[in-house]
Specification:
The complex is a heterodimer of chains A (430) and B (242). Chain A has a single domain, classed as Cytochrome-c3 Hydrogenase, chain B. Chain A contains twelve helices and 14 strands. Chain A has helices at 44-47, 53-60, 68-83, 89-119, 133-154, 174-201, 269-276, 282-292, 302-322, 372-393, 398-412, 416-420, and strands spanning 5-9, 19-26, 29-37, 163-164, 167-168, 212-217, 227-230, 235-237, 245-248, 257-260, 265-266, 339-347, 350-358, 364-370. The radius of gyration of chain A is 21 Å and the shape is globular. In chain A, 55% of the residues are buried. Chain B has a single domain (17-240), classed as Rossmann fold, CATH 3.40.50.700. Chain B has helices at 2-16, 31-39, 44-47, 80-92, 100-105, 117-129, 156-169, 181-192, 196-212, 216-240, and strands at residues 19-25, 51-56, 68-74, 93-99, 147-149. In chain B, strands 2-1-3-4-5 form a five-stranded parallel beta sheet. In chain B, β3, α4 (80-92) and β4 form a beta-alpha-beta unit. Chain B starts with a helix and ends with a helix. The chains are: A alpha+beta (430), B alpha/beta (242).
């Protein structure tokens, strides 16, 4: 006779946004596991219908403070693809730097502020004892580096205004670039130290469950361009990504879930690492070879290790990109036309998809978004359900299970702000 | 041994002398909250001994709302639950400061207030289904505010400046910043614009705005009873909504 158990986690902390989780166990089996995203809807996808193309990216940025650069860049890509605008090499370089900066700041916040307290059994980084001050300061410094890079390229760390349709409206000064390079160089050993900490704590955090991993694949592990690769062997063009997704209505949540080719899947740092680790920067590969051997991994806690390795890769890639001089450049010419534009890129938490339809004046007539966290919800629920069963088998009590479940949710690094703010649209309708 | 006991007592006494701070998110993108977290990058060292984050969901477990010297609130208000929570915050905080556009004027969460025709009908059906309010409102329509920090999102510098002035006003002192000089200068430059001059202008403008809103102490004193009144209003509203 197995155990009966009901777990309700309210207002889970140290994640982006608001969510609750409930797990129902009867006779040792998980009957039900629900991630109830409780963010209040803000109807962005409705708000941009009827809006001119040049207002879209700054509004979509406000979907989420922490992923703002991703929403800016993905909506810009959709607009430019729709109108047939080809951005310059420098624009693409600056966009890569902007998304790198966003990922670095965001990953660092998640790893040092949200994950480390779990690993050291404290509630908050603010509760660290003196012997951890140095480790915490490392995180603050790495965050600073991402933050600073975002400011010099995008104008700000949150809702960066300089990246627009057609290019950039402002360019960094040489002294700023130099300073950013120095901060990135200083970050290397701090990130390596963190990777080592995560590695040493990894043994305790092991729960394997195989799914299909889907992420962008390219030659230099960038977050903007490439082909969509599934670990099941599928390789498709970016613009076809949406065709493989099917929406799943979750009546108990303010967000929808997704399946890829009709099946549960995972997107995000772990998926990217699993499908594209061979294309990491040579310097990164040199320094983290020992950890890389463990990817592809089916352990979702390794998502954090993957994020940390990505931090190092961002540093190495960005230093190279900043080595090429940046000059002033005019925006590309934009001629609106009746069109459908699709933007696909890797946001910090996985593949972000924008489809925007325009009339001949460049007014938005239809919009559809697919947010990484929404793509992961079904996987989160199933994996947590299975994890709870395995913990029960090991004889863990309710208090321990609750903490473990929270840790696993944080390992996924979900972003509820992003996941909740869209109107439910039946995918088949379009 | 004795020494360490003495020290721990001292630390405990010292702990009481901290500025008690809460950071709360309502209907928004949580970008201001990111600014708060980013403001710690160069300042945590200086704030560690003088600031206690009583409630801050991004950093620690969610607990009952505690007594605070200051509460920062980001985001607009779109549900009755949020109204009730705001009233509770007002009741527990000497000073309440709105952080960023959402809290100050409702944008962009309030965009749906302006929807018309078929779009409005479609959205309002969901709004009612999700038990959100008919209109999204800024924080000042729910509780009295003591100050606002503008921006979308509010900047780290503006937040830090305000927090540090509150630290000093409580009679606490700030540790001098150590190291990171080169980085600090760069950060200021990037935030304030290209030159020091622009930065100065920004500061001057900010001070003016602060003065026109009136001193904190005045409002903080009178704010409490007002808040209590407002709270009862909110509670009534909750009853009405079942």
């Amino acid at each position: 006779m197995g155990k009966d158990l009901d777990i309700e986690l309210k207002d889970i902390s140290k994640i982006e946004g608001h969510t609750n989780m409930s797990v129902q166990v009867r006779d040792g089996k998980v009957l039900d596991c629900k991630l109830k995203i409780s963010e209040n809807k803000r109807f962005f996808t409705e708000a941009i219908i009827g809006m001119r193309y040049d207002k879209v990216s700054s509004l979509m940025s406000r979907v989420c403070g922490t992923c703002s650069s991703a929403h800016v860049l993905c909506s810009i890509e959709a607009i430019e693809k729709g109108f047939g605008v080809v951005p310059s090499d420098q624009t693409m370089r600056l966009r890569n730097l902007l998304v790198n900066a966003n990922h670095l700041r965001d990953h660092a916040m998640h790893l040092w502020f949200f994950v480390l307290p779990d690993l050291f059994d404290v509630d908050s980084v603010l509760d660290f004892e003196k012997d951890k001050y140095g480790l915490l300061q490392d995180g603050l410094d790495v965050k600073s580096a991402g933050n600073f890079l975002s400011k010099i390229i995008g104008g700000r760390a949150v809702h960066p205004p300089f990246g627009v349709v057609g290019g950039f409206t402002n360019f960094p000064e040489e002294s700023d670039v130099k300073e950013a390079v120095q901060m990135l160089k200083d970050s290397r050993k701090k990130i390596l130290k963190l990777i080592d900490v995560l590695w040493k704590k990894r043994r305790k955090l092991n729960f394997e469950r195989k799914v299909n991993y889907v992420g962008l694949m390219n030659d230099d592990y960038n977050f903007l361009e490439g082909k969509i690769r599934g670990s099941d062997g599928l390789m498709i063009e970016e613009r076809h990504f949406g065709l493989h997704l099917s929406r799943v209505i979750l009546p108990y949540s303010n967000a929808t879930g997704f399946r890829f080719d009709g099946k549960e899947f995972l997107t995000g740092a772990l998926a990217r690492m699993n499908v594209n680790k061979d294309k990491l920067n040579a310097k990164t590969r040199r320094d983290v070879g020992k950890y890389l051997k463990h990817f592809p991994s089916d352990n979702v806690f390794d998502n954090n290790l993957a994020q940390a390795i990505e931090c190092l890769n961002i540093v190495d890639n960005s230093i190279e990109l900043l080595g090429i001089p940046i000059g002033k450049e005019d925006l590309a010419r934009i001629v609106p036309r009746k069109s459908t534009g699709i933007g696909v890129m890797e946001a910090p938490r996985g593949t972000l998809y924008y489809r925007l339809d325009f009339d001949d004046k460049g007014i938005v007539t239809f919009v559809d978004l697919c947010i990484p966290t929404a793509q992961n919800i079904i996987n989160i629920e199933k994996t947590i359900g299975a994890y709870v069963e395995s913990l029960l088998e090991k004889g863990k009590d309710k208090r321990e299970i609750v903490f473990e479940v929270e840790k696993m949710i944080r390992a996924y690094d979900p972003c509820m702000s992003c996941a909740a703010h869209f109107l439910k649209i039946d995918w088949e309708e379009e | 041994m004795k020494g360490s006991v003495f020290k721990s007592v001292l630390i405990r006494v010292g702990m009481k002398r901290k500025l008690r701070v809460g950071v709360f998110s309502f209907t928004c993108c949580e970008g201001c909250c990111i600014s708060v977290i980013e403001s710690l990058n160069s300042r945590l060292e200086g704030w560690r001994d003088v600031v206690e984050f009583v409630n801050f969901k991004a950093l620690k477990k969610v607990r009952k709302i505690g007594i605070m010297d200051v509460a920062f609130v980001e985001g607009a208000v779109s549900t009755v639950d949020e109204r009730v929570k705001l009233a509770e915050i007002r009741e527990n905080a000497k000073v309440v400061i709105a952080l960023g556009s959402g809290a100050i004027n409702g944008w962009p969460s309030n965009l749906r207030n302006g929807f018309e025709g078929e779009k409005k009908e479609r959205v309002m059906e969901l709004v009612r289904g999700l038990e959100q309010m008919e209109k999204v409102v800024p924080v000042k329509e729910v509780i009295e505010l003591d100050a606002e920090i503008a921006g979308c999102s509010a900047s780290e510098e503006d937040f830090a400046e305000r927090l540090e002035s509150l630290i000093l006003a409580k009679g606490l002192s700030l540790k001098k910043k150590k190291a990171g000089v080169a980085r600090g200068s760069g950060r200021r430059k990037a935030e304030g614009g290209k030159t020091g001059k622009i930065k100065k202008k920004v500061v001057a403008k900010k001070k003016k705005v602060g003065a026109s809103r009136g001193g904190r102490s005045r409002v903080a004193g009178s704010g409490k009873t007002e808040a209590a009144k407002k709270k009862s209003k909110v509670v009534n509203l909750r009853k009405k909504n079942g």
